Structures are given as structure tokens and as C-alpha cells.
Amino acid sequence: MEGTERRRIARELAGDHGGVVHRRLLRDVKIGKEDVRTEVRAGRWSTWGVHTVRILDVEPEPVADLWHAVWESGPGAVLDGVAALVAQGMTGFSPNTIDVSLPRSATARRVDGVTRHQRRVLEPTLGAGVPRLKPEWATIHAAAWAVSERQAALLICLPVQQRLVRPGSLLDVWHQIGRCARRDLLGRVIPDVCDGAQSLGELDFGGWCRRYGLPPPLRQTVRVTSSGRVYLDAEWDGLVVEIDGGHHLLGLNPTEDALRANEVSLGSSRVLRIPLLGLRLEPGRFVDQVARGLGLPVLTSA
């Protein structure tokens, strides 16, 4: 094969992988080890580990790092955790490592910037694009491997809010999980995010008030506004607290919530809005705001 044709084919292959190509793909199109060595010596290509070849006249893209991580980590390797979610299209979070899972029986290789997880059984995967775990499983792993509870909660929220995972599917997978890091936290956060209406029904907000020494509120009081009857989550004289579950972020719910809160505020009461997830993660700070709204100090804390 002429060098010009060889380089054209390699550019096409690398274009599908962010600027890199696996040696196996090159061999499949009759570009062998000596051909690669020739191009590397000429400074047109470079090697990046055992299997990965950079094609230097193809503009590199971030996805090249993900392909490299999978190709170099060992047989059967797939993206997992945040890396799998990024490959699925998640935005708003930049991982500081690429998580890769592979069978426990595989011979794994150390790769800079990659965290390996060798597992007895790999959960279901996707093969289109960079091989990766299905997003429901990757979401739970990402949260379990997070560096803090706040980050864990964020990594549950983002895939659901960005519609990378269906809430019902995430709940189904969660119910299949056995041992898991941060199980207590995730057991609260996942239902909050995926089924906020049910979680709100089970939430004892009056109990939170008692823990922090606040007087008990009236629950589910009814107001009649220009838009009709509205039910308020918690009310004291002159102060209303509305608790927003994950379902409040969907569709037109934020618009309806704002209209309802505005109607109440235009009357004689102030309205404080508390995200249910925020109440799980930062109860003291939110209850302190309620206390200040009532003109009271927080008498005790949990």
C-alpha cells in the first residue's frame, strides 16, 4: 500500500475516534507494524501505549482520552462511573480520572489518568461509541465513588435532569444493588430525585422542626388564590415553606411553582423554597433560614 493511501485510511479511522486509532483496526485494513513504525519515524504518527496510535494531522478531541483508556486498560474494559456518563453526553462535571471497569479475570494494565475497577460481574454495557456501562449503572457507581456526599448527590441529579437516564430505570437498578458505598445516602437521594412526590409524602418536615427546636408548622393548609385552591407544604403565621422534590424540576412544574409562590407572597406571607435534596444535605442551613423567617434562633441542632 502506498504511503499516501495508508495515511488517508488512517485519518478516516482516527476521525471516528477523536484522533486515535487502535493497532487492530489498522491491521484490519492491511496497515501493519512496519507501516506504523515508518509513520512514527517520519513524525506523522505517534504511539500512545501498547495499542493506541495517534494520527497527528487529525485534530485531537476529548473522546480520544476515553478510547485510549478502554484500549489500554485490558481486555473487556469499558468506561464506568462519570467517564461512562460523559461518553453518554453528560455535561456540567469534569472528572479528574477516567473510571474503567473490566472483568476480574482480565490482565489489567496501569494507565496514567485511569482508575481501574476489576469486577467479578460486569453490569450491562453499551457498544455504540466508546464501550461503556449503561447509564443507570454508571450513575450509581459514579455516586458511590464520589469524593463527598455533595458530589454524590450531584452525580445522581445531573444524569436525571439531563435525561440521560429515566428515573424509573434508575430506581429499578438501585433496587438490584447489594453492597454499595454510601448506601444510606443514596438510599435517600435516589428516591428523592427519581420519585420526589413519593419522597415528599414520606418526609416528616415537622420532625425536622422538632430536631432544631422550631414550633411545629401547619401542614397542607389550603389557600384560595386568583388561580384557585393551592395546598401549602408548611405554614406558620406570616411564613410559608414549600419543599420541592425532584419532580418539581420537570416540564412546566417550575412555572407552576413560581406562580403559586408568587400568589402566596402577594398576600400576607413570605415564602421560603427548600429543595428536598438540599434538606437532606444541608438541613441546618435551611432550618436556620426558617428560624430567621420566624424571628427565632435555632435552639438545638441535629
End-to-end separation in angstroms reads: 73 Å
Q: How many alpha or pi helices?
A: 14
The poorly predicted ranges are 247-252
Oligomer: single chain
Major pleated sheet: 4 strands, mixed
Derived structural class: alpha+beta
Principal-axis shape equals elongated
> Please, what is the average pLDDT?
86
Instruction: Kindly state the percentage of residues in helix.
Output: 40-55%
User: How many distinct domains?
Assistant: 3
DSSP strand content: 15-25%
Task: Give a brief rundown of this model.
The strands form 4 sheets. The protein has a 4-stranded mixed beta sheet, sandwiched between helices. A 3-stranded antiparallel beta sheet has the order 1-3-2, sandwiched between helices. Strands 4-5-6 form a 3-stranded mixed beta sheet. It has helices at about 5-15, 25-30, 35-40, 65-75, 80-90, 135-145, 150-160, 165-175, 185-195, 195-200, 205-210, 255-265, 275-280, 285-295; strands spanning about 20, 45-50, 50-55, 80, 100-105, 115-120, 125, 130-135, 220-225, 230-235, 240-245, 270-275.
Protein model, in words:
The structure is a single chain. This protein is an alpha+beta fold. The protein has 3 domains: 3-55; 63-194, no CATH class; 200-293, Endonuclease, Chain A (3-Layer(aba) Sandwich), CATH 3.40.960. Helices cover 44% and strands 19% of the residues. It has 14 helices and 12 strands. The strands form 4 sheets. The chain has a 4-stranded mixed beta sheet, sandwiched between helices. A hairpin with a 5-residue loop joins β7 and β8 (132-133). The chain is elongated, with a radius of gyration of 26 Å. It comes from Knoellia remsis. This is DUF559 domain-containing protein.
